[in-house]
Each structure stands twice: as structure tokens, then as C-alpha cells.
Amino acid sequence: MSVLLGLDVGDVRIGVAISDILGSGAHPLCTLTRTNRQRDVTAIGDLVSIHNVERIIIGLPVSLDGTLGTQAEKVQQFGNRLSKTLGITVEYFDERFTTTEAEDILEQVEIDTKNRKNIIDQVSAVIILDEYMQENTTGANDEE
Which tens digits make up the pLDDT trace of 65-102? Predict the structure, then answer.
């Protein structure tokens, strides 16, 4: 099984999650504070190298009506830059409702509002990566 890196890309922060080597789940890795495009790409490239990542899954902010807005275009531009610069496959996954789901999870485990900001992007990245892996595992099993 290949190691996947999940990203929740925002204008200020990038939440990062990683799959375990067995492909049984995603785990929070870190939150990167964005500085500039080159440093952001370099930081992700370092994570790809350290963890032997084979593919990056990026949450795509699709509107409720299914269209792609300005934020989705910015995310795709960033993903294309990652793919080209790092020479790695980048895939996009619909991230509708992941932030709301992450907020609900953090509220249930009673993380106070002040500390939520520091980890919500990681939790969102975990949700994106987990859902991607579930959808792709299910699809693979259906074909057998």
C-alpha cells in the first residue's frame, strides 16, 4: 500500500494528514502556516520525502451546487504547482462539509475554542484523506 498525504489547503494554513503504511486510516501530521508559494511547496516536498509519500490528496472546496469557485481554482493552481515541482501525483477530493464535521468532532472531544484553531485544519485533512481512502477501497473491492 502506498503512503498518501492529505491536504486541507487554506489561504492562511494547510492542514496535513498522512495514511499509515497499511492503508487502514489517516492520522493528523501537522499544520503548516503559509508564507509564500515556494516555501509552502518546499515544506510539503520535505514531508513527501521524509514519509515516502506516493500521492497527494487535496480537498477541493466545491460549492453546494457542485460548481468550482475562486477558492477551488486557487487550490487547483497550488496542487498543479505541487505536482509539477515535486513530480508527484496530485488528486482532488470533494471536501464539502469537512470543516463543519471537524468542528463537530473537536466539540465532542471538548477541545476549547482557542485550541481548535490550531488543529482544525489537521482534522479536516484527516477527514478528506479517510473519505478518499474509503471511497477508493470500496471502488476497488466492487470491481473484483
Answer: 778 888 899 999 999 999 999 999 999 998 876 666 66
Please write down the long-range contacts of 118-121, taking CB distance under 8 Å and 24 or more positions apart. 118/31, 119/28, 119/31, 120/15, 121/8, 121/10, 121/13, 121/14, 121/15, 121/31
Domain that holds residue 24: 3-143
Query: What is the model's pTM?
Result: 0.83
Question: What CATH number is given to the structural domain containing 107?
Answer: 3.30.420.140
Dist CA 99 CA 128 (whole Å): 10
Total count of domains within the chain? 1
